[in-house]
Design brief:
The complex is a heterodimer of chains A (337) and B (445). Chain A has 337 residues and is mainly alpha-helical. Helices cover 82% and strands 4% of the residues of chain A. With 445 residues, chain B is mainly α. The longest helix of chain B has 40 residues. Classes of the chains: A mainly alpha (337), B mainly alpha (445).
């Protein structure tokens, strides 16, 4: 495997990891707030905070990892995306900052403040929307390169059907992924009341998720025909994604195997996300940055790969320990520890 | 001063860093204090120290949260505000940036585990062991990120051919001449600042007559470690001065208003300077600058006049230098005094003026940190990569930096206010005695 393919695969895996853990986190914030205002707090909030408290910081790292890695492996992206994304990027950082800190203020702080919970829930839905603009911009058509540098065409972005379909997909997927995971978690915690509500959420958000995915395809055909053609070329990836979607919703509907249902959701997004990424290549930012043209020099690339492997050897056991203590420890999940 | 996007980008980066460094310093320094307190608690079978570790850890989570989010902000702002710099430097310095996220990851995982497993292990040492990866992770983060900053001061490990970096040597870039002194200084001063901030809290409780045994133990612990770290910081500062004299003489010369190259150069303390570069009201210590630069009064110290005018750092950094050094001296003095009084039984180390002096030392240490960074960063102007790329070549061309600046200033205002309020609320009216009583009713662990 060449260095640039290895690099982009590593980054894509991390972005996928972020997609899953962050979606659970973002959706959980929204559901926690929803439970509070509908006076059903006693049901879901404890469950949610038991899951989130030990892991929220780790979620954040996945994201940092992705963008530091992107700039490291493909320094040219820093130049194009950096200039273009000043405002959308700043908004995303501000939302992430509000969310992260108010989570801590609310959860470790002295008071159980509804306002803090509102900030936490609301930002959770806005962050996916603002982060998804980076993916939209990478499709081309929103940047103009002039003699003075890169110009971001904000108006084009705001009036683009493609951009709105991506935003819609980002938001509904968050709620769908999160509800599916939390149903499983509630099931493990033997928290029947929460499970009943969360299962409904999961089923409710499954239809918009799949509709939004189709919408993105349709909009992409108009926006970037080249990319669309590539995606058709690997249609089976999207077919598998659809298959796992059906398995997931079927199991959820039948109230069977919640764990496998969530794994199917993960696989659904895995195939869709990797299919999207693979068909996007060789461009990172269409049509200015390609993966071969922008890859970091070979010495640095090799050093990054070595460090990456060494880092994984350190991280994987640590992550397993974290999960064993808080995710797969039945007593902890049930709130007995 | 013209408020173009270069200036606005500088102001925004400075605001983010000045805000972040408060939490980053606490983030690097406090884990080691928690580690020591929990160690003593288990070793001495003394619940006071365990409650101390618990309460420090609880406050620490709040500051970590703000540290994480502002750290994410600066990480992204590097690319958003300085795209050309990142495009160039990404080729050379991606390694430590990447490793920093690993260290951060490692710390995040174990901090989460540490905070939620206080009573989960039968053997208390098993829980204490979790502090080790947290301390390693936070200190390594400081190491990697400081090596990036060091690279900006003394870039090496590549050649430039037609404006592109070639012949890259990632390790040479990471271990550049500035790295050892800078890392040592950053880590020591963070440990020191954390010790003095925690000391200030204990001293404040004692001065208000709310403090009991718990606070006395806390103060003794923090003052002893504080003195050790302050001595370490002083040593690191001395090494930094010697490093500057050798590798970045224009920074030292600007900080010391030293214009003519000479041996037996005087050290300037305080004073003011006018437009013509004439210094007044300063205290001159003869030969001391030479001594500081090379351990001998004969050392020749390069003056600012050797550098073209458009490559000289602003002279205002002298004030930051003075403040930083003075506070460093003060920290050594106050912790030394406390320990002397503590060792000799006929004195009273709990007297009010001394306690007030310790209360002041916490915020002062943080001011010294800020001054140190102002000196280090403004002292590098006009370069972003010393000798290679100037700041105005690196800044974004976007016209929206002003809006971003306004949004971030508002954000930092809100975060700062809430952080302080939440921290005060967390501990006010919840005395440690009540917690001791609740957790360890028979006074044993």
């Amino acid at each position: 495997m060449s260095l640039e393919v290895l690099g982009i695969s590593v980054l894509w895996i991390f972005l996928y990891g972020y997609l899953i853990v962050a979606a659970i986190d973002f959706g959980a914030g929204f559901f926690a707030y929803y439970a509070r205002i509908t006076k059903r707090e006693h049901i879901m909030s404890k469950l949610i905070s038991r899951y989130l408290s030990p892991v929220w910081e780790v979620t954040n790292v996945f994201f940092v990892f992705f963008f530091v890695g992107l700039v490291g492996f493909f320094p040219d992206t820093a130049y194009y995306l950096g200039t273009a994304l000043l405002i959308p990027g700043s908004i995303a950082i501000i939302l992430l900052s509000i969310r992260g800190s108010f989570y801590a203020f609310g959860n470790y702080g002295p008071s159980n403040n509804t306002f803090f919970l509102f900030l936490y829930g609301a930002t959770g839905l806005l962050i996916p929307a603002s982060l998804s603009t980076a993916l939209t911009i990478s499709e081309g058509g929103f940047l103009e390169v002039t003699d003075d540098g890169v110009v971001f065409l904000a108006k084009e972005l705001f009036t683009s059907p493609y951009s709105w379909s991506v935003v819609t997909l980002a938001i509904v997927s968050v709620l769908y992924i999160s509800a599916s995971f939390l149903t499983y978690y509630a099931h493990r915690a033997e928290d029947i009341e929460s499970r009943v509500i969360l299962r409904k959420f999961s089923l409710f958000w499954s239809a918009p998720t799949i509709l939004a995915s189709l919408m993105v395809f349709v909009a992409l055909r108009e926006h970037n025909p080249e990319h669309f053609q590539n995606a058709i070329g690997i249609w089976w990836m999207f077919g598998l994604s659809l298959l796992f979607f059906m398995i997931a919703t079927f199991l959820m509907y039948k109230k069977k195997m919640y764990g496998f249902s969530f794994i199917s959701v993960m696989l659904q997004f895995f195939f869709a996300f990797f299919g999207y990424g693979a068909s996007h290549l060789p461009y990172i930012i269409y049509p200015y940055v390609t993966i071969t043209g922008s890859v970091v020099n070979e010495t640095m690339g090799t050093a990054l790969v070595i460090v990456f492997i060494a880092g994984l050897l350190l991280l994987i056991p640590s992550l397993i320990l974290l999960m064993r203590l808080f995710l797969f420890d039945a007593d902890y999940v049930k709130g007995k520890k | 001063m013209e408020f173009d996007s270069v200036m606005l980008s500088r102001i925004l980066t400075a605001s983010t860093l000045l805000f972040h460094v408060i939490f980053a310093t606490i983030g690097v320094g406090v884990p080691i204090m928690i580690m020591i307190a929990e160690f003593l608690g288990i070793k001495k079978n003394d619940p006071h120290y365990l409650v101390l570790a618990r309460r420090w850890a609880r406050g620490y989570t709040i500051t970590v949260a703000v540290g994480v989010v502002t750290g994410t902000a600066i990480g992204l702002q590097l690319s958003l505000l300085w795209p050309s710099f990142m495009q160039f430097a990404g080729q050379v310095i991606a390694l430590p940036l990447f490793m920093e996220t690993f260290a951060f990851f490692f710390e995040a995982i174990f901090l989460g585990i540490y905070l939620y497993t206080w009573d989960r292990f039968k053997n208390r040492w098993a829980h204490w062991l979790l502090t080790i990866p947290v301390v390693i992770g936070s200190t390594l983060s400081a190491f990697f990120i400081t090596s990036v900053n060091s690279f900006m001061n003394t870039p090496q490990g590549f050649d430039i051919v037609n404006g592109e970096a070639v012949n890259i040597d990632p390790l040479a870039a990471m271990f550049n001449p500035a790295t050892p002194a800078k890392v040592f200084h950053v880590v020591m001063s963070s440990y020191m600042t954390a010790a003095f901030i925690l000391a200030a809290i204990a001293a404040f409780a004692l001065v208000r007559k709310k403090g009991k045994d718990y606070h006395k133990k806390a103060l003794r612990l923090t003052m002893i470690t504080g003195l050790i770290f302050a001595a370490g910081t002083a040593l690191a500062g001395d090494l930094s001065a010697k490093f500057l004299a050798e590798h970045q003489p224009e920074k030292l010369a600007a900080a010391e208003w030293h214009f003519e190259t000479e041996s037996n150069a005087d050290l300037l303390v305080f004073g003011t300077i006018n437009e013509e570069g004439e210094v007044s009201n300063a205290l001159r210590i003869p030969g001391m600058l030479s001594f500081l630069s090379g351990n001998s009064f004969d050392t020749e110290v390069i003056g600012l006049n050797e550098f073209p005018e458009d490559e000289r750092p602003p002279l205002g950094i002298h004030y930051a230098f003075d403040i930083m050094v003075m506070i460093g001296m003060y920290s050594l003095f106050i912790s030394g005094l406390f320990i002397v009084l503590m060792l000799f039984k006929r004195f009273n180390e709990w007297n009010k003026p001394l306690l007030w002096g310790i209360v002041a030392s916490g915020p002062l240490a943080m001011i010294a940190i800020e001054c140190g960074w102002i000196l280090a960063e403004i002292g590098r102007q006009p370069w972003i990569l010393r000798g290679i790329m100037k700041v105005d070549e690196a800044a974004t061309t976007s016209g929206d930096v002003g809006i971003a600046l306004a949004m971030f200033l508002l954000l930092y205002g809100v975060l700062g206010t809430f952080c302080v309020t939440v921290l005060i609320k967390m501990f006010k009216n919840r005395p440690p005695e009540a917690e001791l009583e609740k957790r360890y009713p028979n006074g044993k662990i």
